[in-house]
Model the fold of this input.
Amino acid sequence: MNLREPAQQVSARARWLWAGGALAQVVVAAGALVVVEWVSPLDLPWWAWVLLGVALASYVVVVPQWRYLVHRWEVTDTAVYTQTGWWARERRIAPMSRIQTVDHAEGALARLLGLATVTVTTASAAGALEIAGLDAVRARQLVDELTLKADAVEGDAT
Amino acid sequence: MSDWQRLDRRMLLVHPIREVVKFLPALVALFLAGTASGGAAWHYLPVLVPIALGLLRYLTTSFRIDQGRVELRRGLLSRHVLSTPVDRVRTVDLTSPLTHRLLGLTTVRIGSGTGDDDGALDLDGLPVEVARRLRAELLREAPAAAADDPAPVVDTLRLDPRWARFAPLTSTGLVLGGGIVGLAAQGWNTVGGPRLVDLDDLADGAARASVWIAVPVVAVIVLVAMSLLAVGSYLVSNWDLTLRHSQRSWHLSRGLFTTRETTLDDVRVAGVSLGEPIGLRLAGGARLGAIVTGVDRSERGSSALVPPAPYDVVAGVAARVLGSAAPLTGPLVPHGPLAVRRRWTRALGPVLVVLLLAVVGVVADAAPAWVLVPPLLALPVAMLLAADRARSLGHALSDGRLVARSGSLTRRREVLGTDHVIGWTFRDTWFQRRAGLTTLVATTAGGRQAVTLPDVPLPVAVRLADEAIPGLVGSFAD
Done:
């Protein structure tokens, strides 16, 4: 028995969202490096700097693409199924009857790109399912759909 | 019980004492200032302020149970009314600090399992008998009927003080002991210990006796002191521990000075977690916790069922709590050769890298030869660790319960009722995917919020999840 991938892909614009986030992290890291170099020079050979530059650049360029290939989701009448991550992949399945809340969130960059994140929580602190980088309109529909379906199944969600 | 009523009158003694203790630094300062400036009698008057506050606290606090709600009203200037529907009450715990016990009182903490502290409602100061009746009423247990029950309630477990020998073998025991040693050292300095005993003198004496004697002696003294303190704190918190089952819930009471009575509703006991940290395991001991749903996060400690004790005792209690011994004694399915190989690479990898660097350093004459010693000593330890972790790894589905065991230094066997599993997570890194393994996590609302099965072959994990909750994972499998 093997687990198949969830059916739906997130919006292609999500790549820009992740690239933006990665860029912010890289800028902070590079800034810290510049400060360190300025205070006490590290004396790294030139090839170390090149390697570092390549690593940081690929984190901004390659990783968002990788994430986009991994991130998928699916909602059936009885369950929610998500797949996230890149190097470490995480696939989460929650039965509809255990869903407690459905959150809809739009960060600043996500709003510029017309994207939204839907988070489905259960009674376990370790069990939240997050679908990031959804098209904002699609996300609204999904929230309504999930709310209806979660109401339709019986159970007290604990 | 529909009218507002006050707490027990004996709290009139407790509250003023408590307030005086709270204001003690200010009172001492005032008192010292008073004696310095002549010592007139009115300097002692400030003592009356906390006493009056204590009286007011008693007079302004009242509670009632009315129309299906427990309500607590308190505060003089800003009134607070805390209220909880009776049918939401999940836990009723009785705690009696020493002052309360001398007066025959107890504090009733009513929890509704909302997960935050505001949800808890404390009735501070009720007579013990009244508190027990209130608990029976709130937890909807048949009151008094237990008295003429043909089968008297039998204790499932009574603490044997000899089990305290296991206390120094757990990390919590040692940390506790270490903490007390640290506090004592600080107190020693504050009190002026260094002036009474000349440490330099001691140090000189030790130096003359050579380092090779002084260091082991000090280490042994510290170890013995910490062990004694661990044993002491084990006995203080677990003295007279009794675990019994009545009607539909488990009752646990313990404590030498402060006594605690905890009640766990059968419905909320999702499973058990049998912990075997390495020290306990080598000595043939274990400890047991219940995986309980609907407890405040801050009260997670209250779900401990059996403190460190002999393995057979712990397993016996676990079997009684679960209603079957199979999940604890039954065989476990190992996770296969690839999972075993991962245990070895993960344990040996870092050590081998360090060893390689050391060898390169020594060969290139950039480092002294002794840098080889630590990694060489670490190698057999890592091998033992890997072998033990590989042996521990296993899972099973037995009697409608998911069983998972893993770890070496902190080995745990967790048993979770499948009806308490509220979701599945399959987590795998690129390395795990290449080996066809996945880390299966069953999420739940109690305990650590999840039971983890590391490095299960993916098809086995999917089948296991599908058998545990039929139809859920199956619809996404092919």
User: Anything to note?
Assistant: Chain B has a mean pLDDT of 83. The CA atoms of residues 23 and 64 of chain B lie 31 Å apart.
